[in-house]
Amino acid sequence: HPPSPPTHPSVLIIGAGLAGIYMLHALRSAGFTCAILEACAGIGGTWYQNRYPGARVDTAMPLYQFSIPEVYKTFKWRSTHPTRAEIMEYIDHLDKVLHITPYVHLRKRVVEASYDTHARLWTVQTQTTTNDDDTTTKPPTTPTQTTTFHAPYLISATGLVSHPYTPPWPGLNTFAGPIHHTKTWPHTGINVRNSRVAIIGTGASGVQLIQALGKEAKSLIVFQRTPNLCLPMRARTLDAEGPEQTDEELARVFARRRETFAGYAGEFAARSVYADGEGAREEFFGGLWARGGFAFWVENYADVLFERGANGVAYEFWARETRGRVADERKRGVLVPREAPHWFGTRRPCLETDYYEVLGRESVEVVDLRGNGIERVVREGIVTADGVVRGVDVICLATGFDALTGGLTGMGLRGRDGVGLGERWREGVRTNLGMTVSGYPNMFYLFAVHGPSASNGPSCIELQGDWIVAAMVKMREEGVESIEATAEAEAAWTKQIHDILRGTLVQETNSWYNGANVPGKTVEPLIFFGGFPEYRRQIYEVLDNDFRGFVKVMKEQVVGE
Ligand code: NA7
Fold first, then answer.
1. Candidate of 225, 405, 447 to mutate for ligand 1, largest count of ligand atoms within 8 Å of Cβ
2. Does ipTM top 0.95?
3. 318-343 burial, b if ≥16 CB within 10 A, otherwise e?
4. Is the CB of 126 within 6 Å of ligand 1?
5. Is pTM, for the whole model, over 0.80?
């Protein structure tokens, strides 16, 4: 391994999270020289950065890991739903077994990248960061020095949720105490024993944070705009020698997850809610509920996510199970409304252990923001539209991310025409295969916009990562210097993304799945909802048909230019 990361590799990968680690390993194994540019001081991406108390994974083990034999055969998980600390142990293990760090330029934040059509090279500018331990909502770094890298290939592995979103409330910077976004939590942690804490947002991050801080803080005020339809996690400890972690069982699970709709082990039941009588339905729902995790979401009746009535039946079951856990009548109405706040399962449900019990505590207040939103922040605390000021000492923002696109558009990537990605996508995102963009030759990205990203992360990363490697190997074998998506292929792929969701309940629901969580962002389908098998079929068909939908430049063409 190199004494320092390569400065002139054939591939520059942006981001040393799980996607970047996988790409580095897979491309190196295929004979490409690679280096990763990583803004933080350590590897792990989302898991490195999301240090807020309670952070853990919602996908049940053994699913949330790579199917790389030398890695999974030598690592044993202790929990079905590992905490961030246990996942960081896994990332250390990946590092040890796959030798990642020697290939990573740490503390290098990409601020600009453009493609030189004559030299056939990407030029990438980075700024050296000095601080990823920021405790405020400002970007977590202070730039100092600029470094330039070159490579024929650029791969963005910046992830689904890397660009934090903070609502632009007036007065935020006048608040007297600290403000922490879940994404930029201080390394040192925070002590809230004597503090009045506010948590704004009840998505996956908020739910986890509330469960942790609600037990520690002197008092907690939860600001909820939309109730989360949480599912019981039912985490269990895993035995290193147990049947779930044998090599044979893992090989079976990995094969299985390649064939399911979203890269989990389970699949939707092949029948309608209405196919069962009431008794059988209750029993079926009850079984999913008892198993916990995402079972009630991704293994439910086939029509729950598509048909209004079926969806309503699932919501009623959810509400009945959950209502009983909130003793206080007012809180119950806010957390488990009679009317479903949105179609069940069309936003990502979150898993909880004692969320409703924590919210039920006397020291925890739940503020319903529907019709009474946060208007501004003042020195003492938070002001809602009704004029009430709630005094707090610490504000925690669990307000989410400019998801799916933010990681790509926030790095200064420019196409051949000099136009930045953000500018290019202002009126709507266009990509080919959810991995390439026209005007951006030899640039690939994964686990982001227009891919099958509403899924199990490692499964999606392997699916797309393996294709990128296959495409690059084919290019090398056939003497192709560069490929670039055509505008027509982009238009067709984008149309398909939209067509799949047209008229579905998912499309009627606002969330980060369609960009509606960030005001001003175009609201449009951002995820391929056709399932893994169909996605795989289509992307490999492109390779089998001589890079259909791409313009190829052959090596000889370059020499002759
Ligand atoms: P999410 O799921 O986008 O959640 C953000 C939360 O913040 C959500 O409850 C929002 O309410 C709330 N929010 C956002 N803006 C505001 C304003 N202006 N006022 C009040 N509340 C607001 O982000 P997470 O970080 O929890 O999770 C992201 C993904 O990371 C997650 O799905 C996993 O895949 C991992 P809303 O629901 O929009 O009414």
1. 225
2. yes
3. bbebbeebbeeeebbebbbeeebbbb
4. no
5. yes
